[in-house]
Design brief:
single chain, 1448 residues, 9-stranded mixed sheet, disordered C terminus
Length: 1448
């Protein structure tokens, strides 16, 4: 340990001396340290040519240039067998000697204590020295003077003097002036442990070592040079200044050098003359001729004056000081009708818009005066506002001319064109158009109707399909799709699904085929729909055949069949279709043609590829889907007029299949009648990429639309498809990938496994077992060149060590891979900067690493991730070189690469060559380099016996892990080696206290409630250290309180609250005065707070004290201070808690010792406070239930914040009880708008040009701008401006500039009329057209005129509505159903009424006749007698009197 200390001190001293030598302690900005090369908290110091790192001495210790290596204490141990913890200064020698066996200590009362690498004599009282042989004094008599401290030593007592004293018993006052510390003639006055220097004038500093720079205040003015001298300064003035401080400037204007009343300006060492107007020259001696510059314009005469001139503008037509302003004759706006007034010299000219004339454009030309409209057309002047709508805005640019409103059937500018309504071909679906006057008529073909033959007659409207069949409408026809039959029922068929189909009764479809019945109008029958692999009418013939060995099947296709398919334009005239399955990735499926012209299909890397070759031209088609997974695929290759096609169906393709197409290269098909299936002859097979015959199964082979059955093959071919599933179950045991080779399998083993079924594992090798030095060496048998790979498995815990190194036969190092700080480093030069891989590897787990060296580029592969880590100088591996694994022989030093590697290596490969310590059973005949020499390399991956030193303490059980150990500790111990005692595991705290472990015991923490109920405590002399820290956790609303008070005699400590802030008062008996100070932070707010009262400098006798609240320094006692509270350790000292306090207290610690709120536990630690008295403290923090009365209003949430209500208001409310409607607009949230307040919200009403919830978004008016011709839109507030490109002008850049001319630049289409205007040519369009040149026909359907879902058909200058069923009219506005209902009611009512009338008239006549007959049969009739007697009353009961008889 002493060697280590000396080493570190010497290192620091040397580094400091070098820093002064190199001049690195200057104030210049460092350069080398900008990249922060120093690690682990080290300080970087910039040197002259480099940098130096000062490693941190706290915590883990590091060494090295960059402080990146953990310090190894065993490097400086005196013993060979040493154990240390990396980064820690302690070490332990394994070879221990008991030095006490020789009895080195003097007898009889001394005691020898054996120590590591030494011994210690524990002497009795009165004896001292290394062997207790010398009588010595002790500290009982207090021999030390002047406050010196007596310290017991093995050899006796020793006085440690306070600063300023020396001597054996501190009897001598040190004369600090004896060394003459004061400089520059200063007087030294000696003091106690100090001295004072009284400086002579001109010097300052503690030792008067600083020469006062009288020039520091910059007394010299006007850029004069200050010269510092002894106790004064002198100023050297620039030219033009004088005075002691150069404060006075010499006035060169005193001689009055300027003439003609000029003003003289004094300059530095010179002067300048400021001439009055009209004069010039150095001294203003020359008069200026103001007319010399000819300032008067437009021929005006100039008259020179003193310092001025006058222009005579008479009879020039101009005005202004220089006759530069043309007299504005246009100011009075003499031009009418929007004409442009052009200024002239003493005149103006009016530029009239077309359609106006006269000197002032006052006359409107009547274009309709000559009746230009023919065929009864009506003429309208464009300039007459009465012709247009009220909202039409007059534009003088378009008022010239007239518009003819033509009679129906006529068009043209002057209505001279008789419109051929059939010219636009209005009749649809092949209808014939017949032109008529102002109209046309369409003659429709069969199956269509309507005015335009636009209606496809729905033959399905009559619902011809029966028995649930659905009807598909056609052209003048229909098709009935019959439903599928339910189980047990016969299906329906026939043209209208009205015939039950009996064709599948007793059908003979075999091999899973589907029977499809049919009815042809005469009889019933059926068709067998064969499953894949079968053919013929009954699906009896098998089409599946297999290839289990290389070979092919030749097939000849008749040439006339090929030619016939081409001549008739068949879609698949030249085609091959088949189904196949295989597991091999590279094979030829079929070959068609010869050597010069051919078409082939093959599997390349698992994907289908079509290759076509003809007349030296080669084309390829590829399908992206993989087809070698053993599933069936359907492939179709065909050629037609659209090109060469590849269609693949099966797994990996969607329902329509995977499709590919290219232009066909075939011009002549004569040589394509040779077809080879499953392979091809050798000379043809060479044209393929796979160059291998097909192995697998095929079926349903179709060539040029004709099936080819395997029964017709000339050679016997195995029918059916039988295959063994080699990879189920996995023969590779999960250690590799099983590759199905159709007739066998192969295991592609994962590293480090090998053999046919991956059962074998390559041997692991252990290097540096039990800290031995080991390595293995290999001779490189062949050149590996510049591009190579190094791959291996690694398992290690050692942070540093050489893994792999390449050397030339001469021993020169040119490539190294080694560990440093747990990461892999790679270098190609012994002194070059290495490359670092980004992964931490020394975790004790197995890692697979691959390092790939390309030309200078290094790629690091780990965990399937590749990292490019940089470049190195070029490396070339030649035959004869040597490779070293795990370390180097003793004659070579491996420390530059971290020493020997400690851990396991497995499956180490250079490219594909294995580097093995011993030969192994290599069934696959892989290349191997066997070690030519190996030292102490262990077979297998073996860990050191890390438990042999019994590292686990206190009964812990040691378990060996890989080169490490773990300790299973008893319940009451913890730590890496079970070295720390834990007490809380036994749950010693009662009453719900929280147990906290200490280094020597435990504490039971409680919260407690106090209501002016004090508690007293005493340390009883148990405190180990003086009290310099007080910690209190409190929660209260008391603004004034006493938290803690301690007294003993005149010693006193008080910690309390004053106006809600922490207040402290300390008085020590030997102190000069009482220290009192108060914080500023308020703590009486009902929340928990943490208060620390701390002695700022605990190592001093007297120091200021500070108050810290919640981790923030609140106050200090500066400039006053006092010592520690040592009186609290006296047995008579009493500490009172919560003497005048209402609230809760949490943990309270005095000197770091907890004040317990219960007295029913006995912790083991020495330092503790004891509870005095019998009063019990109320445990737990409780407050009054202030929320029980629900004081918060308007849905607010009541929170109890310790004896006070805090209302958490809902949105829109404020106030203590949430009873005030919050003004959400008070904060001015609207940026560019007016705020409208609502309950629980607000609304921003934005100014024009702004948007957003807060009106903070400037609306980009350019987003929907109308700028034309590529103009740039410039956004403004609530507006935008168009910046026109060259060639355009106008507010929206809509006009060409210079203006276009009719006939030359513009031609109006569709009989449009061109007019030249001020801004260029303008086309007046005929009705039905629009556009700049009238080139577009207006779509009258854009306004959706047709109602009730009618379809609008656009026509020339009109539209036609195709109405849905039930509606009619020009815009489908007539409801035919309503009209039909009305007509049907009348149709029923009128006939019924007529029938009733017809029935009533005969009935009435019959009744009258019957009555008359009755009267004639009942005797004579005497009206007078009967009337008088009333005898007719009887008859009246029989029959009502007829009305005609009542008149008698």
């Amino acid at each position: 340990m002493e060697l280590e200390s000396i080493y570190l001190d010497l290192k620091t001293l040397l580094l400091t001396m070098m820093m002064f030598k190199w001049g690195i302690l200057c104030t210049a900005t460092p350069d080398k340290c900008l990249s922060t090369p120093c690690q682990n908290g080290a300080t970087c110091v910039d040197t002259k040519d480099d940098y130096a790192c000062i490693c941190a001495t706290e915590g883990l210790r590091y060494v090295g240039k960059n402080c990146d290596k953990l310090y190894d204490a065993c490097s400086f141990a005196p013993c060979k067998d040493c154990i240390s913890t990396p980064g820690m200064p302690e070490y332990r020698c394994m070879e221990e000697v008991d030095e006490c066996q020789s009895n080195p200590c003097s007898e009889p009362h001394s005691l020898c204590v054996d120590q590591l690498n030494g011994y210690f004599c524990r002497c009795p009282a009165g004896y001292g020295g290394p062997q207790c042989h010398r009588r010595v004094n002790d500290c009982v008599r207090q021999p030390c003077m002047n406050n010196g401290t007596c310290v017991l030593r093995p050899q006796g007592s020793e006085c440690q003097c306070v600063p300023g004293y020396e001597g054996k018993i501190c009897e001598d006052d040190i004369n600090e002036c004896s060394s003459e510390p004061c400089q520059n003639g200063a007087i030294c006055i000696d003091g106690v442990a100090e001295f004072h220097c009284f400086c002579v004038p001109g010097f300052q500093g503690h030792k008067c070592e600083i020469d006062i720079n009288e020039c520091a205040s910059r007394p010299c003015a006007n850029s004069a040079t200050c010269i510092n001298e002894k106790d004064h300064y002198a100023c050297e003035c620039l030219v033009g200044f004088t005075g002691i401080n150069c404060e006075s400037e010499i006035d060169e204007c005193e001689s009055d050098p300027c003439h003609n009343g000029a003003t003289c300006h004094d300059l530095m060492g010179s002067y300048s003359c400021e001439c009055p107007p009209g004069f010039q020259g150095v001294h203003c001696e020359a008069d200026v001729d103001e007319c010399g510059s000819q300032p008067c314009l437009n021929g005006a005469a100039c008259r020179d004056m003193v310092n001025s001139y006058e222009c005579d503008c008479s009879d020039t037509g101009f005005e202004g000081d220089h006759c530069e302003v043309d007299v504005a004759e246009c100011v009075s706006h003499p031009c009418q009708h929007g004409a442009t007034c052009l200024e002239g010299v003493k005149q103006y000219t009016c530029l009239c818009w077309p359609g106006y004339e006269g000197t002032h454009c006052e006359m409107d030309i009547d274009e309709c005066a000559e009746h230009p409209c023919d065929n009864g057309g009506e003429c309208y002047e464009r300039s007459k506002l009465t012709h247009w709508g009220l909202d039409w805005e007059l534009s003088y640019a378009s008022v010239a001319g007239y518009i003819c409103h033509c009679s129906p059937g006529f068009a043209g500018e002057n209505c001279t064109v008789n419109i051929d309504e059939c010219e636009s071909g209005p009749c649809q679906n092949g209808g014939t158009c017949q032109d008529q006057d102002n109209g046309y008529a369409c003659t429709c073909p069969v199956g269509f109707s309507g005015f335009l033959c636009e209606v496809n007659i729905d033959e399905c409207e009559s619902q011809p399909c029966q028995n649930g069949g659905w009807c598909e409408d056609g052209t003048a026809s229909y098709i009935c799709h019959c439903p599928e039959a339910k189980v047990g029922n016969l299906p329906w068929g026939g043209s209208e699904c009205n015939v039950k189909l009996f064709g599948c009764f007793h059908h003979e479809c075999q091999n899973g085929a589907t029977c499809s019945p049919w009815f042809d109008g005469i009889g019933h029958g059926h068709t067998c729909l064969c499953a894949p692999g079968f053919y013929d009418e009954q699906c009896l013939t098998q089409t599946t055949f297999s290839f289990s060995s290389p070979g092919f099947i030749p097939i000849e296709v008749p040439q006339e069949k090929i030619q016939m398919g081409v001549e008739h334009g068949d879609d698949y005239g030249l085609a091959i279709q088949l189904r196949f399955r295989t597991t091999l990735p590279d094979m030829l499926v079929f070959y068609r043609g010869d050597v010069e012209t051919y078409l082939l299909l093959e599997i390349v890397n698992g994907s289908l590829q079509v290759k076509a070759f003809s007349d030296g031209s080669e084309l390829k088609l590829t399908s992206p889907a993989f087809v070698n997974d053993g599933d069936w695929r359907d492939v179709h290759v065909f050629e037609n007029s659209k090109g060469l096609h590849l269609l693949l169906k099966g797994p990996g393709c969607n329902g329509d299949g995977c499709r590919a197409q290219i232009e066909s290269p075939f011009q002549n098909l004569d040589s394509l009648f040779h077809v080879y299936v499953g392979g091809a002859p050798e000379e043809l097979l060479q044209n393929s990429v796979s160059y291998a015959s097909f192995i697998g199964c095929m079926e349903d082979l179709i060539i040029d639309s004709g099936p080819v059955l395997p029964q017709t093959f000339q050679e016997d071919q195995h029918l059916g498809c039988s295959k063994t599933e080699w990879c189920e179950p996995d023969p590779c045991h999960g250690r590799g990938r099983c590759v199905d080779l159709w007739t066998s399998y192969h295991c592609d083993c994962h590293r480090p496994f090998y053999s046919g079924s991956c059962e074998e594992e390559l041997q692991s090798w252990t290097y540096s077992h039990e800290d031995s030095r080991s390595f293995s060496v290999y001779r490189i048998a062949k050149s590996h060149g510049r591009n190579f790979q190094v791959s291996f498995f690694l398992r290690s815990l050692k942070l540093e060590g050489l893994i792999f190194q390449l050397r030339t036969p001469a021993g020169e190092v040119y490539f190294s891979m080694y560990l440093k700080m747990g990461r892999l480093l790679i270098s190609s030069l012994a002194d070059g900067a290495p490359l670092t891989a980004p992964i931490f590897l020394t975790t004790g787990e197995k890692h697979f690493l691959l390092v790939e060296i390309q030309p200078r580029q290094v790629i690091f592969d780990h965990g399937s991730l590749r990292y490019g880590i940089g470049t190195i100088p070029e490396v070339v591996i030649n035959a004869g070189d040597e490779a070293y694994l795990g370390g180097l022989p003793e004659e070579w030093d491996s420390r530059p690469w971290g020493g020997h590697y400690k851990g396991c290596l497995q499956d180490f490969r250079l490219d594909l060559v294995h580097l093995e310590v011993d030969a192994w059973n290599n069934a696959d005949e892989e290349e191997i380099y066997v070690s030519s020499g190996a030292e102490k390399v262990k077979r297998g991956c073996i860990s050191d016996d890390t438990c042999k030193g019994s590292p686990c303490q206190n009964g812990g059980e040691c378990t060996v892990t890989f080169n490490d150990f773990t300790c299973s500790c008893p319940n009451d111990y913890t730590g890496l080696t079970c070295q720390t005692r834990v007490w809380c595991v036994s749950d010693p705290c009662l009453n719900g206290g929280h147990c906290m472990d200490l280094s020597d015991g435990y504490e039971c923490l409680h919260n407690a409630t106090f209501d002016n109920s004090p508690a007293q405590f005493s340390a009883g002399g148990s405190l180990v250290e003086p009290v310099s820290l007080i910690y209190v956790e409190l929660r209260t609303r008391s603004e004034n309180a006493v938290l803690l008070r301690a007294t003993r005699g005149s010693d006193q400590l008080t910690v309390g609250l004053l106006d809600s802030s922490v207040w402290v008062e300390i008085h020590i008996a030997d102190g000069a005065e009482t220290v009192t100070f108060t914080g500023e932070r308020k703590v009486a707010d009902g929340r928990w707070h943490r208060v620390n009262v701390t002695m700022a400098k605990r190592d001093q006798k007297s120091s200021p004290w500070t108050i810290t609240v919640d981790g923030i320094i609140d106050a200090s006692s500066l400039p006053h201070g006092t010592g520690s509270l040592h009186f609290l350790n006296d047995r008579g000292a009493v500490l009172t808690l919560a003497e005048s306090f209402t609230g809760c207290l949490g943990a309270v610690r005095v000197g770091g010792v907890y004040l317990p709120f219960v007295d029913d536990y006995d912790p083991p630690q020495v330092a503790q406070f004891r509870f005095l008295g019998t009063q019990r403290i109320s445990l737990g923090c409780r407050s009054a239930p202030v929320c029980n009365a629900n004081p918060c209003l308007n849905g607010a949430t009541c929170n109890d914040v310790f004896n006070k209500v805090f209302c958490e208001c809902d949105v829109g409310w404020e106030g203590e009880l949430c009873d005030v409607d919050a003004d959400d607009c008070a904060s001015g949230p609207c940026f560019n708008g007016r705020c409208k307040d609502y309950l629980a919200g607000f609304e921003c009403r934005c100014h024009p040009g702004y948007a957003g919830a807060l009106c903070d978004v400037d609306v980009d008016e350019c987003e929907h701008h109308a700028c034309q011709h590529g103009a740039i839109c410039q956004d403004g507030p609530n507006m935008y401006t168009c910046i026109c490109p060259n060639g355009y002008s106008g507010p929206r850049c809509q006009w060409d500039y210079p203006p276009l001319k009719c006939g030359k630049d513009v031609l109006c289409a569709n009989d449009g009329i061109c007019n030249d205007g001020l801004w260029g040519a303008n086309c007046t369009c005929m009705p039905g057209f629009e556009g700049k040149s009238c080139e577009m026909e207006i779509n009258e359907c854009n306004s959706n005129p047709c109602r009730h879902g009618g379809s609008c058909l656009d026509r020339f200058n009109m539209f036609v509505c195709q109405c849905p069923p039930g509606y009619s009219g020009s815009v489908c506005d007539v409801n035919q159903q309503a009209r039909a209902e009305e007509v049907s009611w009348l149709a029923v009512a009128l006939p019924l009424l007529s029938f009733c009338v017809l029935v009533f008239i005969p009935a009435l006549a019959f009744m009258i006749r019957t009555t008359r007959n009755k009267r004639q049969s009942e005797g004579a009739y005497s009206p007078s007698a009967e009337e008088l007697a009333g005898a007719r009353l009887a008859m009246d009961r029989m029959l009502k009197v007829p009305p005609e008889e009542r008149l008698i």
